[in-house]
Amino acid sequence: MERLQKVIAAAGIASRRKAEQLISTGHVQVNGQVAKAMGIQVEPHDHIEVDGVPLTTEKKRYFLLYKPRRVISSVHDEKGRKTVVDLFPEVNERIYPIGRLDYNTSGLIILTNDGELANLLTHPRYRIEKQYTAKVEGIPKVEALKKLRTGVKLAAKTTAPAKVKLLSSDRTKNTALINLTIHEGMNHEVRDMLTAVGYPVSKLSRERYAFLTTDGMTAGDSRPLQPQEVASLKKLARTGKIR
C-alpha cells in the first residue's frame, strides 16, 4: 500500500504537495468516493480519479527550459498569457514546472511529470542552489552586500544568507550587475531582497539551477534532461553531493 498523494505524484499529475492540495479540496476520488483525508493508503487495484479523469502511469519526462520573459511559470493562466507548458506543444504527457520564475524574470526552470523529483527540489530542507544575475538601479555599497550575505529581513521572514558578487558597475547610468546565489524559493525573493537593501531590480535572470547552466542556450531554448542529470539532481537533493 502507498499514500494517495504519492501515487498521484508518481502518475505525473502534480508534485506531492500539490497532490495534497488536490485531495484536501475534494478533487480526488478513490473507488467512487471523494477522498479528502490526508494519509489515505491505496492498493494497486484501487480506482483513482482526479477531477473525473482516471489515474494512469505516464512515461517520465524531464526538460530544462530557458524561460523567456513575459511567460508564466504555470500550467494554465487565467488571463490567457503564454505559459511554460505552451512552449512544449509536442509533449503529450502532463508536465508542469518545478517552482516558479516571475513573469518578467528569465532563466532556467525544470518541467517534468515526476512528482518525486518535484518534491525533492522544492522541499525547504533540500538546499538546492539557484544563481541569478540582476541588473539593479544604483551601485551597491559594501554595507548592502553584507546584508545580503547575512540575511535580509522581509515582511514574511529573514532570508537565509546569500552568496553575492558585484560583477560590474556603470557610474554613468548608475546601474550595476550583481551575481546572487540562494537556496530558498520564496515568491519574488531575489527582487525583494535587493529592493530591501535599496537597489531595485530592472532585469533578472536565473543562470544556474543546481549544476545546470544556461551555457549554449538562449531564451526560449529547451532540451531534455539526460538520465544521469536526473539521477544527479535526486542524489544532490538527498545527500548534498552529486557523486
Automatic annotation (TrEMBL):
Keyword Transmembrane: no
Annotated InterPro entries: PsdUridine_s_RsuA/RluB/E/F_cat, PsdUridine_synth_cat_dom_sf, PsdUridine_synth_RsuA/RluA, PsdUridine_synth_RsuA/RluB/E/F, PsdUridine_synth_RsuA/RluB_CS, RsuA_PseudoU_synthase, S4_RNA-bd, S4_RNA-bd_sf
EC number annotated for this UniProt entry: 5.4.99.-
Keywords of the record: Isomerase, RNA-binding
Protein name per UniProt: Pseudouridine synthase
UniProt xrefs under CDD domains: PseudoU_synth_RsuA_like (cd02870), S4 (cd00165)
PANTHER family: PSEUDOURIDINE SYNTHASE FAMILY PROTEIN-RELATED, RNA-BINDING S4 DOMAIN-CONTAINING PROTEIN
Family assignment from sequence similarity: Belongs to the pseudouridine synthase RsuA family.
Any one GO MF annotation of this record: isomerase activity
Keyword RNA-binding: yes
Pfam families, alphabetized: PseudoU_synth_2, S4
Residue ranges of every copy of the RNA-binding S4 domain listed in the record: 2-69
Top-level taxon in the UniProt lineage: Bacteria
